[in-house]
Structure formats: C-alpha cells, structure tokens
Design goal:
By secondary structure, the chain is an alpha+beta fold. It contains five helices and twelve strands. Helices cover 20% and strands 25% of the residues. The longest helix has 16 residues. It starts with a helix and ends with a helix.
Length: 269
Amino acid sequence: MKRLWAVTAGLAILLTGCMDRVAQLPELEFLHLNDAEPAETTAPAGTAPSGFQPDTGQPITFEAVTESPAQDLYAMTLRDLHDKLLLPSGKELELDGDIEKNRFAVYDIDGDGREELILEVTQTAVENRFTAVYDIDADGDLRREVRYEADISFWSKGIVIAQYPDAAEHEGDFVPYAAAQYDKEQDAYPEFAYVSAIDRDTLTAQGLSDEYPFGADKSNSGRVYCISGDTPIDVTEYETWYASWHTNLKELEVPLAELTDENIKKLEE
C-alpha cells in the first residue's frame, strides 16, 4: 500500500528525534438542524388537481415529482463505471474481477443534510482499490470529499478511520491507521493523524533490537506509538490521546449495495 513509505520514513525520524506533540481533536459542530420548514400547501401531499377526465368527469391528479439533481448525477457516475468502466476521475478502471461486486451507497454520511455518493472499488489490483465519498459542488459537478486506498470505516462526529494492514513493518500486531474528520467549511475530510507503532519484539526478530527507543517506553510495555511522524510516545500517552477523540464514537452502518444494473436503475427511476 502507498502508506509503506510512512512507516520507514517515520522510524528514521523517530530515531533522530523530533518535536514532541500529542494532537488534540476539536469537537465538530454540525449545522444540519433547524432547517427551514416547508411551505404549506392546500393540496394533499403528492397530488395536485388539474382539470377533469373527459369521460368520467373525475378530477385528474398528477403525482408530484421531486427533482434530485444529485441523485441523477450519482446515477450517471455509477452507470459510467458499470457500463464503460469509467471512474469518477475520468480514468478507466483496470478491472480485475466482477464489476458488480464493487459497492456504493447514496447516503448523508457527513451529516450536512445532503446525500453523498460513497463508492467502494475492490474489483481491481490491490494497489488500485479505494473507498471515496463524493458530493456536488456549487457548479453542479461531482467533487471528492475524501478518498483512501485502504480499509475504511465511518464513525459519528464525521470521523473516518482508514486502516493499512499491509503497511505494518515494525508494528507487531498493531495495524497502522489514518484518521480524518469532516469539516463543514471545507466540505472535506482533512486528515488529523497517521498512527504507527514500534514493537520491541518485532525489531528483535528482525535483528534490529538496538533501534528500539527504550527511553520512550516508560511503561516497559514493549511498544511505543508514533502520531504523524512525531517522537515515539509511551502507551499511556497514546491511550490518553486516543481517548481524547475516540471516546463515545459510534461506528456507522453504511447501506452499501452492489454495483448491479438493477441497483443503479433504482436511482435512475
């Protein structure tokens, strides 16, 4: 995975020494509440009388049609991928597998009151797999909010966690991960941390025991943690930092569906 460079470079930085820092994550306030109330209408919701049937004299009713340009654009994007193997970026997908085993969802994942397109592309070479979230910009064009070539999960408070099991080198059984949080002003997910670890037993097995930062391991736990390439910290410091943003988070269940012709048609109807 493309995070491999972070592990090697991070270890070199840690052993030469960097500025100590334990980042704190600010709370994010979503502004999707108290939306304006819809205007009252005299006609029943979903119908609008307009004239009479010539044969029966009964009123003609028409079903109200709710326009959804976002849904239309998302459907077009999925159709291009399904039928033409065209990714949202305009590049052609190098298919390795079944195109319909990729997955998607149209769902308000960031809590801004609008639905986003969540796309999970797995039917390609390992290094090209990704999960991304797309929105529509002011010009009505598709724009990307976040994209990770990793296994990602969505959490409350707009948190995204991307795990990189293939990037593990000195971590032991710890899986390196990146964490990002949705920012309403940017309408994007800026990353606030990339976390790796240095495991004493793993280094020893690799013949690198002298490179273990014993001074940082105040608890003698056999493992220290590195946040965004900073100086390695003790497990107690890492756990304090982790709790500062992860406590009370809930993982969101995203209703992902397979990229089948039938599922795309539901958006096109």
